[in-house]
Amino acid sequence: MTQDILARIAAVVGPQGLLTGASEMAPYLEEQRGLFHGKALAVVRPGSTEEVAAVVRLCAEQGIGIVPQGGNTGLCGGASPDTTGSEIILNVSRMNKIRAIDPVNFTMTVEAGVILQTVQDTASDADCLYPLSFGAEGSAQIGGTIATNAGGAGVLRYGNARDLVMGLEVVLPDGRIWDGLRTLRKDNTGYDLKHLFIGSEGSLGIITAAVLKLFPKPTDIQTAFCALGSLDAALALLSRARAATGDSVTTFELIPRIGLEIAVKHVHGVTDPLAERHDWYVLMELSSSRADANLQESLETLLGDAMEEGEVVDAVIASSSERQQALWRIREGIPEAQKREGGSIKHDVSVPISAVPEFIRQASLAVEAAIPGIRPVPFGHVGDGNIHFNLSQPIGADKQAYIGEWARMNRIVHDIVVGIQGSISAEHGIGQLKKNELAHYKAPLELDLMKRIKAAFDPRGLMNPGKIV
């Protein structure tokens, strides 16, 4: 039966679309953190929506589970198969065409396998902006960013992936194709079905194409690295910056001293841009599509006012694009540096923006009490309340023993998050990593509604089995 179904799948996708050898499947079976190692019956790489639909119909006929996968850059095991070897991975990387771009309507229609950076570059060539941006943009694929409702550095200004999608094309668990590739900004004709698939991590269907929302291309971009007078000063500076610049703040990233230090220590080319040591920093960026926006003057003025109020104690403004990249390298280097510091227990959480300082203080005290010597590294998107509360191991600790504390640290941190009306997953999703945490913290009624939706779309549970619910 296995050989028969593989032969029938090969007849649909061609020899280049079916991988069954252990070595050729290996890169698709492990997620990038190395937390999940799966097995698969095969890796299937369709070249079109019709091929995806045909493969899904064959799997539905035989009761074979399907794990949708894009660039495999997720951080929660949502695109990894289980260990039974009975599922197929359906990877959409061969579906990489840009179907249309309309600079007048500010839309782009792309297939699910298009790399995020390719979308950004194509938009830029048309004097437009696709603002979704994060560290893995050179390998993440657009279908995966939508399926996980990815966030990144520009959420403060432009929103998550959900806010950047106007329409979708989806293959349903029974193999039917839903054509929802709308380019309308207003369509009030009942349930907005696309939102069921955005953030569903492939558990309700396979996204094969999307209509993306574009924006005018920025022509004035100003970047500053600011030392804060205190952690609480970050919120005052954010409010000041938004009001003083006509809400031109694109990015507002919190960086602790330890984050800067380990980036300088481990990441080539990273240096401390300020002469004195400080406890907390913010990387702030303003942007405008107006050539005469005078954002540099606005930035200088607001920083001067912030210094008078003690919110900022020192700052540097990037004088060139190269200097901007150098400042960004500090922020982007923190996750890379943490890997080289030993074990790191991750938390991708969000709280109300006004509660960010209190959350960091409470959570830091709690984990330090639980594991003496633990090193909290809270950083990230303070402008939208999303803090990556990562915990580096105590110096000299055994890495594997420390990683074994992951569940205990999760419970400590997540209890605090939920206690201040926050979320245990801000932008990385649930996948396998947080499935038990979701069951623990989600309201019973919400879980029941989610399970009912899953059962309505996928009653046999064949679409990305074992993920989310």
State the distance separating the first and last CA atoms. 29 Å
Low-confidence stretches: none
Alpha carbon gyration radius: 23 Å
Looking at CATH, which topology of the largest domain would you report? Alpha-Beta Plaits
Number of strands: 19
CATH class of the largest domain: Alpha Beta
Give me the secondary-structure category.
alpha+beta
List the total number of helices. Answer: 16
Please state how the strands of the largest beta sheet are arranged side by side. Answer: 5-6-10-8-9
Question: Quick check: average pLDDT?
Answer: 97
CATH architecture of the largest domain: 2-Layer Sandwich
- Principal-axes geometry comes out as globular
Largest β sheet strand count, sense and barrel closure:
5 strands, antiparallel
Helix content: 25-40%
How many structural domains in the coordinates?
4
- Share in β-strands: 15-25%
Protein name: Hydroxyacid dehydrogenase
Keywords: FAD, Flavoprotein
Organism: Telmatospirillum siberiense
Cofactor: FAD
Structure description:
It holds the Pfam family FAD-oxidase_C. This protein has 469 residues and is of the alpha+beta class. It folds into four domains: 2-91, Uridine Diphospho-n-acetylenolpyruvylglucosamine Reductase, domain 2; 98-216, Uridine Diphospho-n-acetylenolpyruvylglucosamine Reductase, domain 3 (2-Layer Sandwich), CATH 3.30.465.10; 220-339, Alpha-Beta Plaits (2-Layer Sandwich); 344-428, Alpha-Beta Plaits (2-Layer Sandwich), CATH 3.30.70. Helices cover 36% and strands 21% of the residues. The strands form five sheets. Strands 5-6-10-8-9 form a five-stranded antiparallel beta sheet. A hairpin with a 4-residue loop joins β5 and β6 (107-111). α1 runs antiparallel to α3 and α12 packs antiparallel against α14. It is globular, with a radius of gyration of 23 Å. The mean pLDDT is 97.
